Amino acid sequence: MLVVHVDVHVRPERVADFLEATLANARASVREPGVLRFDVVQDQADPAHVVLVEVYRDADAPSAHKATAHYATWRDAVEEMMARPRASTRFSPVFPVGEAGWESPPA
Questions:
Q1: Fewer beta carbons under 10 A from the terminal one: N or C of the chain?
Q2: What InterPro entries does this protein map onto (predicted)?
Q3: Rounded mean pLDDT, 74-101
Q4: How is the beta sheet containing 2-9 ordered, strand by strand?
């Protein structure tokens, strides 16, 4: 398993548009066989700061995710909405143990 946090700083005037595009991507992503979770969280102190928490079954699943049409649509749509380039960090899950503890139902 692999957990990826994608840290995004959105132009303040584009937050609503960014969230709309990102939620469409998240809903499609959780239907991918290699995606266990795809959470979108927003900073309470800074609504223009959004983190995507992506949980994959294995190390190959992020590449498969990036090959989907919905990812390409999202990537192209949000590029100009970002205040700076997004950054990602890869994590190994510690708890919960096993895929069942991470899996979310399709949205």
A1: C
A2: ABM_dom, AI-2_Isomerase_LsrG, Dimeric_a/b-barrel
A3: 93
A4: 35-42, 49-56, 2-9, 87-91
Measured from the Cβ of residue 12, the count of other Cβ atoms closer than 10 Å reads 10
pTM for the whole thing? 0.92
Architecture of domain 2-80: 2-Layer Sandwich (3.30)
Q: Which two tokens stand for residue 97?
A: 């143990």
Per-residue H/E/C for the chain: CEEEEEEEEECHHHHHHHHHHHHHHHHHHCCCCCEEEEEEEECCCCCCEEEEEEEECCCCHHHHHHCCHHHHHHHHHHHHHECCCCEEEEECCCCCCCHHHCCCCCC
pLDDT in tens, 38-73: 999 999 999 999 999 999 999 999 999 999 999 999
The set of residues, in sequence order, having a beta carbon less than 8 Å from that of 18 and lying 6+ positions away, is 8, 10, 50, 78, 81, 82
